[in-house]
Structures are given as structure tokens and as C-alpha cells.
């Protein structure tokens, strides 16, 4: 399989952060969005779905080798971002990785684990990060055979319906700890995670 581009979903509105932008929260002095983009770029080419301009998230990513896609209808939810970013994926891509920008523990090793799984399990159509107990999460790689179905999605469910439609074509890739499922959507979640990380 040729290089798998990464769609980094970063157009959400952080409504549960009560005025703060979770993607601009800093980890070791680095905004989460920048950290996620740099991790993704180390693994592959990256298409970033972003809110309409002007927005401070653009400033955070300035100067990086990324393809930034403005999602004019981002208020619709995650699938607007998926559709917009997917339209920027080149014809040569045999698959695409969908990565949420708010997963603070995702590493380059995690992304490479999923990419390697596409070669180890070529009979599958979906390769998905999970916990050791089998709880599915992110990132998720989708075969090009599913691009058309993804491009027709609407609303805020993401591609969960696509995954449900192909249960026998999903391979779960175990990632360390809670890497695949930990996102930080509230100030309280950020405080708890930061305290545990620094303890």
C-alpha cells in the first residue's frame, strides 16, 4: 500500500470547554493542535480540517508543511470536516487515516502501528486503534473502497456508521494504555489529566 495520508480533524468548536479552546491548551509549552499536527506529519502527509477563517488555530500551524482545509459548514459536525478533508486526498492514496486532534497521548509509534497493520491485514477495509481490552477508538484508517460512503455522511456521528456496516472488515490495533480513547473535552478533564501526568 502506498503512503497513507492523514486527515487531522481540528474544526470542532470546543463547546464543552466553556469558552476555552481545547486544541490551544498547552502540553509542555506546546499547543495540543501543534503537537498533534507535528506527530501526524512525522508519519505521513497531513490534511488539516479547520474552522472558517479567521481563527487562531491557523496561527498555531503557520509555517508547517500541511494542507489546511477550511470547513465553512463546520457547525454541522464532524462529517462536514470529513467530507471537506477527504475531497483533498489525492487519487493515488489507497487509504486515509482519520485522526482526532484532541487525543493528547497519541504518539508517532501509534500511527505507525496502524499503518503497518494495513500491510499485515490487507484483507480488511478498516484498521482502528483500540485499548488492550478491545475498546475501539482512534485513529482509524479507511480503505479507498469506503471513500464514497464516507463522502456521503452528514451530521456529527463521524464515520461510525461506516464501521458498523463492515463489522467483519475491521481490524483492531492495540495501542498502549488509553492512547486510543483518551480525549479531553472539559476543563475538569484537562486538570485531572495534567495532575496525573505530572504526579
From TrEMBL:
Gene3D superfamilies linked: Spore Coat Polysaccharide Biosynthesis Protein SpsA, Chain A (3.90.550.10)
Asked if the record carries the keyword Magnesium, the reply is yes
Lineage in the entry?
A: Bacteria, Pseudomonadati, Pseudomonadota, Alphaproteobacteria, Rhodobacterales
Could you tell me which species this protein originates from? Ruegeria faecimaris
UniProt-listed Pfam families: NTP_transf_3
User: Which PANTHER family does this one have?
Assistant: MOLYBDENUM COFACTOR CYTIDYLYLTRANSFERASE
Identify the domain of life: Bacteria
Which UniProt keyword terms apply here? Answer: Magnesium, Nucleotidyltransferase, Transferase
List the protein's name: CTP:molybdopterin cytidylyltransferase MocA
The molecular function terms of the Gene Ontology recorded here are: nucleotidyltransferase activity
Every MobA-like NTP transferase domain range: 7-168
Amino acid at each position: 500500500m502506498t503512503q497513507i495520508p492523514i486527515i487531522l480533524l481540528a474544526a470542532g468548536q470546543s463547546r464543552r470547554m466553556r469558552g476555552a479552546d481545547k486544541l490551544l491548551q498547552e502540553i509542555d509549552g506546546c499547543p495540543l493542535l501543534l503537537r498533534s499536527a507535528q506527530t501526524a506529519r512525522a508519519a505521513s502527509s497531513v490534511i488539516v480540517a479547520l474552522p472558517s477563517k479567521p481563527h487562531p488555530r491557523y496561527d498555531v500551524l503557520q509555517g508547517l508543511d500541511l494542507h489546511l482545509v477550511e470547513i465553512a459548514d463546520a457547525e454541522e459536525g464532524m462529517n462536514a470536516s470529513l467530507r471537506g478533508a477527504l475531497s483533498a486526498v489525492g487519487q493515488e492514496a489507497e487509504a486515509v487515516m482519520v485522526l482526532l486532534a484532541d487525543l493528547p497521548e497519541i504518539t508517532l509509534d501509534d500511527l505507525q502501528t496502524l499503518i503497518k497493520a494495513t500491510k499485515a491485514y490487507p484483507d480488511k477495509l478498516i484498521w482502528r486503534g483500540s485499548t488492550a481490552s478491545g475498546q475501539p477508538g482512534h485513529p482509524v484508517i479507511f480503505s479507498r473502497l469506503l471513500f464514497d460512503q464516507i463522502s456521503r455522511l452528514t451530521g456529527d456521528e463521524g464515520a461510525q456508521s461506516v464501521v458498523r456496516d463492515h463489522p467483519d472488515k475491521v481490524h483492531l490495533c492495540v495501542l498502549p494504555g488509553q492512547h486510543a480513547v483518551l480525549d479531553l473535552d472539559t476543563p475538569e478533564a484537562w486538570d485531572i489529566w495534567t495532575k496525573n501526568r505530572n504526579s
